[in-house]
Amino acid sequence: MKLSRIAHIVGGELLGADAEASVETVIDSRETPQRGLFAALPGERVDGHEFVTTALDAGAAAALVSRPIEARPVILVDDVPRAMGVLAAHHVATHREHLTVIAVTGSMGKTTTKDLLEGILPERSVVTAKSYNNELGMPVTALRVTDSTPYLVLEMGADKRGDLDYLTSLVAPDIAVVLAVGSAHLEKFGDVEAVADAKAELVRGLAPGGTAVLNAADPRVAAMATLARSVLFFGEGSGIRAENVSLDDSDRASFELITPAGSARVSLGLVGAHHITNALAAAAAALTAGISVTQIAAGLTGRTALSPHRMNLVERPDGVLVIDDSYNANPQSMSAGIDVLARLGRDRRTIAVLGPMLELGEASESEHRAIGEKIATLGIDVVHLLGETAATIAPPGVETHVHQDLDGVRAALAEQVRSGDVILFKSSNGARLHEVADEWAS
Fold it and tell me: Looking at 125-129, 219-223, 288-292, 303-307, which range is the least confident one?
């Protein structure tokens, strides 16, 4: 496509020579595709406009910019994120005849579920990389679609009402998967009902004739069935469920996948029984997309986490078992992490290294205390807490250490941890506990 045509689509002005270009777009100049586009995003700490020349030198055909700069060629627009969205919507629309779009949302499990789908669907499918699930990341993924792409899997996140309305206005899904409604981002939403309403935007945004794939075990998700003409439930009590579940010594689940189209045995490579829900969601979406039960089971079996810091299990040479689930945390995922620690540490000393669960608003103190009570009930041996917010976890009757910074955590673990211990790292990403987890899991 000509740069002049791209400029016309996004309502911008081409400054510099016209040329053929790919619509593949990146927001990191280090990932610049040859003859693709670099989106220069303004930021509080880093301004993408400063890296336009770097991207052009690396082979970009042009950059999307929101202010005039000397580098050429660039496409000058009023709003770079909006231009990315407009271009993504146009691009997907031109491929829609041969493309099935699957979108995944939920308070937890989104990234794992889309990673599982990537293992099931044909290799030419395009799947959200990393956790690119907002108004910037979603267009980056959608603009990777080509003439040979059969499936587009989009992880869609919501920090506030209207976020999913906007994303589905750009690319309406043929299959909308809603995993769960939890307590994430309560500080912004106010209450869980508002979270549910925001997640329901994905179902409301279905393409004509689309299907909602809903978690039957979550009442708030199941209630979204009234918003769609075509619904497929997954989970306990539904047509797509897990039976004869067993857990191995590493807490990896095996089960019989039951579907209306037949059944098959699945053995997950993911750590934690809670991943059964994610696997069932992926299976239901794939079944709706026309994938056979045999292919679904084969794609799920042995599948491990593709994205970092999500239940990554590392048995170190010194005999310490590390459970790195430090990417993010809300009350539900924190609880699931504690469950895994208790099961894997049945005959070993267990150490929970926990940071804060952020953005919980007025519910923050009560939710943190509830985690502490669970820790005490399950008999976790030692707890290390990072910062004042996490300090409210303080489980009664459990050896607890509170640290004000990451260096404090590092020093305490270096002194205390010994061979045979099992350590869980879990925190909201903003606390950066994943940096310490990286050191222990490497």
Answer: 303-307
pLDDT one-digit tens code per residue, 324-351:
999 888 898 999 999 999 999 999 999 9
pLDDT at 143 over 80: yes
- Looking at residue 185, its pLDDT comes to 67
Residue 372 to residue 44: CA distance in whole angstroms: 36
SS3 sequence of the chain = CEHHHHHHHHCCEEECCCCECCCCEECCHHHCCCCCEEECCCCCCCCHHHHHHHHHHCCCCEEEECCCCCCCCEEECCCHHHHHHHHHHHHHHHCHHHCEEEEEECCCCHHHHHHHHHHHCCCCCEECCCCCCCCCHHHHHHCCCCCCCCEEEEECCCCCCCHHHHHHHHCCCCEEEECCCCCCCHHHHCCHHHHHHHHHHHHHCCCCCCEEEEECCCHHHHHHHHHCCEEEEECCCCCEEEEEEEECCCCEEEEEEEECCEEEEEEEEEECCCHHHHHHHHHHHHHHCCCCHHHHHHHHCCCCCCCCCCCEEEECCCCCEEEEECCCCCHHHHHHHHHHHHHHCCCCCEEEEECCCCCCHHHHHHHHHHHHHHHHHHCCCEEEEEHHHHHCCCCCCCEEEEECCHHHHHHHHHHHCCCCCEEEEECCHHHCCHHHHHHHHC
Give the pLDDT mean for 84-90.
Answer: 98
**pLDDT tens digits for 153-164?**
999 999 899 999
Closest among 158, 181, 143 to 21, alpha carbons compared: 143
Token pair of 140, please? Answer: 């980056």
In 3D space, the residue among 250, 336, 240, 217 whose CA is nearest the CA of residue 297 turns out to be 240
Tell me the whole-structure pTM to 2 decimals. 0.91
